[in-house]
Amino acid sequence: MFTCTLDPHSRTTLCDQLYSALKAEIVRGGLRPGARMPSKRELAAHLHVSTATVEAAYGRLTSEGICESRPRSGVYVCEQVETAQTPHRETVVPIRWDFGTGAADAAHFPYATWARLMREVLSEQSRDLLLSGDPQGSAGLRQEIAGMLHRLHGLDVQPDAIVVGAGTDVLVTVLVALIGRERLFAVEDPGYSRVRRMLVASGARIAPTPLLGGAIDVRALYASGAGAAYVTPSRQFPTGAEMNDAQRAALLRWSRETGAYILEDDFDSEFRFAGVSRPALRAMEGGGRVIYMNTFARTLASGLRMSFMVLPMELIARYRAMHAACSVPGFEQETLCKFIAGSYLERHIARMRVVYRARLQTLTEEAKALGEVAPCSAGLYALLNVAGRVPAQELLPLAAQAGVRLTRLCDYSVMPPDAQSERVVLLGFAGMDEEAIREGLRVLKKAWL
Amino acid sequence: MFTCTLDPHSRTTLCDQLYSALKAEIVRGGLRPGARMPSKRELAAHLHVSTATVEAAYGRLTSEGICESRPRSGVYVCEQVETAQTPHRETVVPIRWDFGTGAADAAHFPYATWARLMREVLSEQSRDLLLSGDPQGSAGLRQEIAGMLHRLHGLDVQPDAIVVGAGTDVLVTVLVALIGRERLFAVEDPGYSRVRRMLVASGARIAPTPLLGGAIDVRALYASGAGAAYVTPSRQFPTGAEMNDAQRAALLRWSRETGAYILEDDFDSEFRFAGVSRPALRAMEGGGRVIYMNTFARTLASGLRMSFMVLPMELIARYRAMHAACSVPGFEQETLCKFIAGSYLERHIARMRVVYRARLQTLTEEAKALGEVAPCSAGLYALLNVAGRVPAQELLPLAAQAGVRLTRLCDYSVMPPDAQSERVVLLGFAGMDEEAIREGLRVLKKAWL
Predict the structure, then answer these.
(1) Closest by CA position to B322, among listed B201, B175, B182, B204
(2) Pick among A113, A126, A173, A311 to test the B interface (most B CBs inside 10 A)
(3) Which residues of A326-355 are buried (b: 16+ CB within 10 A; e: fewer)?
(4) Fewer C-beta neighbours within 10 Å, C or N terminus of chain B?
(5) Domain locations in chain A?
(6) How far apart are the first and last CA of chain B?
(7) Which of A3, A245, A318, A198 lies closest to B61 in space, CA to CA?
């Protein structure tokens, strides 16, 4: 049990003393990332303080992103927290094979075209691009995005309903302010942890909501009283399940009946390798309270920092009252506008679909030696259920020692995950070519089996 | 008194009904921007509902940025709210002379140099720029910013303490999450309303704090229990007062004694026309909890969307745990890095100091016909105390009808401003050349006198 000396006569409150002692212990590595914190009652008894004091100290650690509270389970040290050990561990073995899911291929980026269009923009010397411009992003760019949504996603939206922003993190923060912090935000569990973190950082209360048949459990949404739900219908992250028609209809019904907003994150849906895409939730009957989000981080490059969302019109008025400027520079906006208008984006996506499909094939073939690979019809990672006798908790450390970065399905859960998901790893293939994928898997095989 | 029909038997709550009715009235223009809302007690009595219902409806309007609550005064319709009248009013007379304070001169922007450097960046084909890069901004850019801070502001900071972001709005939002929403954020009153709005949008509770001798009243900071204070020491916005040594020392003492953070916004301090700059608060003894913020929106162009802040190291760890990417595109970061390294930024600032000084001189000279102009030794706007018999509340409407945009000192107050400040207007001179300034002032004279 964690122990420390608290001075009731100090000018510093007991809560502050406890908070500092716990934080120091976490940074020192005594309480490790992912570890469960002592129960409030036990720690209070052990240190002879009230449970309210422990609760307040835990609350502060949670609000600072050092700990996280998991409903019906307890308080845990965040996986991402930086400890004295963290940099040390990283310097030992550099990452050579990155199966992370956040990357996009940089080698195939149409650099020459992008550079030519940006040079064009620069030589037009439009000094308007130096001003703040429209807070939603330029009218021309929004027009092009609307056209692209129609052609690629069968989605018809008004350019006036689009807001462009410097990445999904920025847009999520904007959304929390628009929708209101008094609403409870349901998130899929397991789900996209980066957006979950941004929601919490933005001051939203979140309700991790289990999946039922691969999609967010709508009965749980009714029960939790959530006023918004962040979902990934085209391919649930990280399980890869596609939301079926009945599940979509139920979700929309919930939104209609409760007045809740649906945040539909459609990233990666451009990369479909088999089957037919369903229309976006936003395009469906009753999708009036659906906020559609997508990013150019995967279809182009994450370093360009461009995402967008489609808002119901009542939120557009609120957005314009809050924001005097768009967070994307004028030069980038104008270049992207020309890039879409010249059909370069769609050609690039078509080309990358071929490249990624080949990688997926290689990865599926080679990963069979490591366990069972789930069939993957879309998106830029595959799921591998690792066979063999290596303990589940050793999978990532062994991979890291061999220079391989990856994550497990259970890493995306807030609620206690089932044992099964501790042996399932995500293999992102956007950041490596086929040769590197083969190598990385060979290295993993040696490390694990 | 505002009236509406509420149905106690409806499935919609009384609060929701009242909220919708009030919002509709505001959008219709029945309750005008800037108007005081009926007192909660009166409205509750008038509509036969509880004050809690009115309070909840007002709370929702406030959280949505439609209304704002002014301590010890009441609830007001936000000045910025969009009503059915707004676009109509705007289309009648287009703005020809913009004395707004947010602009930077676009005509003198070193377009050729910027374009050349960006072309260089593009032709280097560094595919690393396509990746997310360092979440604080590239190491090279931070190195250059640290050098610039040393040369221009006498501020010595570690590049590792710098965070680059897509504009001050984005950084303020990031800061609220880093510092924590449990802290009360003191803001100068009158003060910079755009940052105040972003603080509120980010979920921070704010404490508008009066000025004493031109600087934030430190006794009021102790009394309010604020855990952070946003201040503009080098030139208080909007009053133009400079924080003296005693005031700086008292503010730092407050920060040290209470553990509060100081957010020092140093924008515009590069443009000093007389006297000597004091060092930044951050550079002073005891400045360990000062967060220094500045922007390239004025020294270069707002359309580039680049600001930065210098954080205490404990906040850097937290920032890196929360943020996986910097919000500024790699191409822009690299171009700015070359721009500072080549001394182009400092040369541009020196050139603009001459340009702006001439404009200030012209403006001061010509505005004398309209009233008393306060001496201005730094920054990009002057304060004019309008003489004559035109009523204070007519100043802006008459200007708008003549095609002139400006703001009054009282527009930046949350607390009831003194009558004096209702006749003081801010005249920004960064967006107009001398001829336009002369014209604009002639037009104002005709409209007002």
Answers:
(1) B175
(2) A173
(3) bbbbbbbbbbbbbbbbeebbeebbeebeeb
(4) N
(5) 14-92, 98-106+347-448, 111-342
(6) 35
(7) A318
CB contact, 8 Å: B11 with chain A?
Answer: no
- For domain A111-342, give the fold: Aspartate Aminotransferase; domain 2 (3.40.640)
Q: What is the pLDDT of residues B377-408, one digit of tens each?
A: 899 999 999 998 899 999 999 999 999 999 99
Q: Per residue in B349-382, pLDDT tens?
A: 999 999 999 999 999 999 999 999 998 889 999 9
At the topology level, CATH places domain A14-92 in Arc Repressor Mutant, subunit A (1.10.10)
Query: Within an 8 Å CB–CB cutoff, is residue B364 touching chain A?
Result: no
Fold of B98-106+347-448: Aspartate Aminotransferase, domain 1 (3.90.1150)
CA atoms A177, A178, A183, A187: torsion sign: negative
Q: Do A98-106+347-448 and A14-92 fall under one CATH topology? A: no
Distance CA B341, CA A197 (A): 36
Judge if pTM exceeds 0.90.
Answer: no
β-pairing, A228-231 vs A184-189, is parallel
The helix, strand and coil proportions of chain A, stated in percent and rounded to the nearest 5, come to: 45, 15, 40
Are B68 and B76 a contacting pair, CB within 8 Å? Answer: yes
Closest by CA to B145, choosing from B126, B166, B134, B160, is: B160
Q: Does ipTM exceed 0.90?
A: no
| CB half-sphere exposure, A341, CA atoms < 13 A | 12
HEC per residue, A157-169? CCHHHEEEECCHH
Sign of the C-alpha dihedral, residues A433, A438, A441, A447?
Answer: negative
Q: Which of residues 30-49 of A touch B (CB under 8 A)?
A: none
First to last CA, chain A: 36
Per-residue pLDDT in tens (0 to 9) along chain A, 449 residues: 777 777 777 777 888 888 888 888 887 777 888 888 888 888 888 888 888 888 888 988 887 778 888 777 788 888 777 766 554 444 468 899 999 998 789 899 999 999 999 999 999 878 888 988 899 999 999 999 999 999 998 899 999 999 999 999 999 999 999 999 999 999 999 999 999 999 999 999 999 999 999 999 999 999 999 999 999 999 999 999 999 999 999 999 999 999 999 999 998 889 998 888 888 999 998 888 999 999 999 999 999 999 999 999 999 999 999 999 999 999 999 999 999 999 999 999 999 999 999 999 999 999 999 999 998 889 999 999 999 889 999 999 999 999 999 999 999 999 988 888 999 999 999 999 999 999 999 999 999 98
In whole angstroms, how large is the CA radius of gyration of chain B?
Answer: 23
Structure-block tokens of residue B437: 């300034």
Nearest Cβ partner for B202 among A115, A177, A324: A177
Who among A102, A106, A128 is closest to B130 (CB)?
A: A106
- Which residues in A lie closer than 8 A to residue B318 (C-beta atoms)? 64-65
CA–CA separation, A166 vs A172, rounded Å?
A: 11
Q: Are strands A97-98 and B74-77 parallel, antiparallel or unpaired?
A: unpaired
Q: Hey, how many other C-beta atoms are within 10 angstroms of the C-beta on A30?
A: 13
Mean pLDDT (chain B, rounded): 91
Q: Is the minimum CB–CB distance between A305 and chain B shorter than 8 Å?
A: yes
Q: pLDDT at position A33, please?
A: 82
User: Closest-CA residue in chain A for B80?
Assistant: A321
Taking residue A182's Cβ as centre, other Cβ atoms within 10 Å add up to 12
Spell out the SS3 assignment of B306-373.
Answer: CEEEECCHHHHHHHHHHCCCCCCCHHHHHHHHHHHHCCHHHHHHHHHHHHHHHHHHHHHHHHHHHEEE
- Inter-chain residue contact B181 with A203, CB threshold 8 Å: yes
Q: Is A137 within 8 Å of A164 (Cβ atoms)?
A: yes
